[in-house]
Please model this.
Amino acid sequence: MGLIRMTKWRTLILATIGFNFSFLIWFSFAPFTGPMAEEFGLSTAEIGILASAAIWLAPFGRILTGWLSDKFGAPTVFAIVLVYVGVFSMASAFAQSYEVFFVERLIVATAGITFVIGIQHVSEWFEEENLGMAEGIYAGIGNAGAAAGALILPTVFYAGWSGPIFDTRWRAAFFYTGVVAIFLGIAYYLLGEAAKSEHKRQATAEKASFDDWIHTATRYGTVVLALAYVMTFGLELSMNGWLATYYDRGFNQSLELASYFAATFSVAAGLLRPIGGYVSDVLARKEKNILPVFTGRYREQWTFVTLCFVVVTMVGMTLAGLSGEVLIAVGAGFMVGMACAFAEGSIFAQVPAMFPNSSGAVAGVVGGVGTVGGIVYPLVYSSAAMPNLHMGYTVVAASMVPIVALTAWVFRPKIASVANEAGFIGSDAGTTSAPPGGDD
Model:
């Protein structure tokens, strides 16, 4: 029992605040890549590696914390992550060598694993028919922490910052955001409650064995949603870490202006995400077909449409960049953010609805595998093999086509109806998910 009586809406607010700040501290390096590159002598390719490195530990970390959240409850796991992230963020502010700084920021970047902890926490409180909206609000506002970082941090820690403690603006930003993370972790532990009832908490904990995890991790539904998340959330991560550099070096903008331009993507990718989840909920409740080829699979239809939208907007990003007009490129970036938001919202409307008693484990796999895009895509954007800084977006779009094709295969009604039981590994028999929507 926490300090106050928790309800589903209070739980949603707590999880959203925690994840929003986690996202802010995760990408707190992005607005300061210029000064950091100057101090440590980094090239454009090395900046791309730094942006990629922010995601390196996320796949395993998300898979692990998703399972741990099912087993031990989200408040405990969320608090532990926030506290150690805060400690290492403060430590990174004192780093004098790039090697030490790199390792410390690598650990700070695990703040991103809190996403699946909050997904599990929210799913333990909300009924199935409203899961898309609730998870969309949580993830959408939470993801907007990247935009908050891009907008707030360069303003608060302005050029010419002169203390207290630090005279370097990015060092001050890392130190003070670390302090906030520690206090927020303590608050999460004291206020949070793992589930809406003890019965629900036990039902989830009992599904947290290793064998159950292997089974759910290899189901068709888990695998295809994880790959879809590579091309949506992984894309979002890559853009959050890269766009400030892109607008700076591709269009000769100042650090502050490039950060503000980059923030428009983060705002779209974050704040529009609830729409993706809400539309999925509405189509499921009203049993509305928008793609007859997937008749009766209402959430799947919307997810497929949004994935196609992502591919189209990425090609548009290249075309906008080649125009040479920065405002057109910013507008194209906003559209990519919108496409990511709609797709991510729809994907995580499906996850807890499909696996109601294993939402943490499945969210961990989907969220963990999904971050791979954030590791790979920045390397494409900054690759010396690209003829210019604009073509990488189209190359990434082409890599998404096979994922969309696999999604179409799994979303066919015959397969989609058993996607939480049939899998790529092992027999179809196994632990069957309970019917969704119960108020345990």
Summary: Residues 8-416 form a domain with the Growth Hormone; Chain: A; fold (CATH 1.20.1250.20). The CA atoms of residues 2 and 191 lie 5 Å apart.
